[in-house]
Amino acid sequence: MRFETLKILLESEGYECFNKGGSHYQFRKEECDLITIPFKRPIKAIYVKMVLKAITGE
Q1: CB neighbours of 54 closer than 8 A, spacing ≥ 6?
Q2: Domains of the chain (ranges plus CATH)?
Q3: Residue 20 in this model has a pLDDT that exceeds 80
Q4: Distance (Å, whole) CA 56 – CA 10
Q5: What are the tens digits of pLDDT across the range 26-50?
Q6: Which InterPro entries match (predicted)?
Q7: Of 5, 9, 22, 34, which has the maximum CB count within 10 A?
Q8: 58: confidence class by pLDDT, cuts 50, 70, 90
Q9: Phi then psi for 9, rounded to 5 degrees?
Q10: What are the residues whose beta carbons fall under 8 Å from the beta carbon of 34, sequence distance 6 or more?
Q11: Are β-strands 35-38 and 16-18 bridged in parallel, bridged antiparallel, or unpaired?
Q12: How far is CA 35 from CA 12, 30, 43, 56, in A?
């Protein structure tokens, strides 16, 4: 999965994207855990699973 696709998915779920100039992006949503994703192509499966778990609440 591409980083851009994962970013769109998280933003559609209400997460805000923050980057302070480094290689990692942080996604924040009120009342939810912080999600940190490295900007690499392709995104490793472990990060995709982490995002899906955060979105579905499982």
Answers
A1: 32, 33, 35
A2: 3-56 (3.30.920.30)
A3: no
A4: 12
A5: 999 998 889 999 988 889 999 999 9
A6: HicA_sf (IPR038570)
A7: 9
A8: low
A9: -60, -50
A10: 26, 27, 28
A11: unpaired
A12: 15, 12, 14, 14
